[in-house]
Amino acid sequence: MxxxxxxxxxxxxxxxxxxIEGQEKILSSHxxxxxxxxxxxxxxxxxxxxxLGQITIVDNDVVDMTNLQRQIAHNMARAGMNKAQxxxxxxxxxxxxxxxxxxxxxxxxxxxxxxxxxxxVILDCCDNFATRHAVNAACVKHxxxxxxxxxxxxxxxxxxxxxxxxxxxxxxxxxxxQATFEETRCATMGVFAPxxxxxxxxxxxxxxKLLAGVGSSLAGRLLMLDGRAMEWNEVRVPRQKSxxxxxV
Length: 248
Known about the structure:
Blueprint: H1 3-8, H2 10-13, H3 19-27, E1 30-34, H4 40-50, E2 54-58, H5 83-94, E3 99-103, H6 109-118, E4 121-124, H7 129-142, E5 146-152, E6 155-161, H8 171-174, H9 186-189, H10 193-212, E7 221-226, E8 231-236
Helix pairs in contact: 4-5, 4-10, 6-7
């Protein structure tokens, strides 16, 4: 690290668990963010400010006025701009050293197969089950850790799925593709603005811990937040021997 980096990241370096070695790991790492909306906004900003060496953001949507209530990486001047590109501009205003690559396409299986293989950690910040399962399948195939978050109304959840561990479940172990889940959207159900900030910030924290080798991750644990009472519940989630994705 040069003198400017030592100053910029000094508060990380002062942490005994992090130090220079941990910060250098972050600087040399590559994160893939799927979605630059409510969850992806704080994820992108915190990873960029923390000094992630490379960040790839995937989002084919554009900034809309209804997004600005919670998607803090965007602003009124960027209405109509692609969200990934808008997030890149916000990161650059905080840390111009960040190398951000924007993919303005929908994250389908073929694209994910290529992008996941190139990254060190994947952050699922999307809003639909089909994409979540496609992301999970690619992470299992390439043995890449996945930090998954979700938020709707006043309810949030976060977990880590790490296929590098034989005991860690994958996303499909907890939410099977064949199961019937209510597909809820912010446009119809609403979402409490700070909720996505809470979950997204925790996703960024889990990703940085994984990359720097600090502490223990949420692998095998699903945290669920009731934002009305501000109460957390934790569920232990084992790997399913019959899972069609990770048990093959």
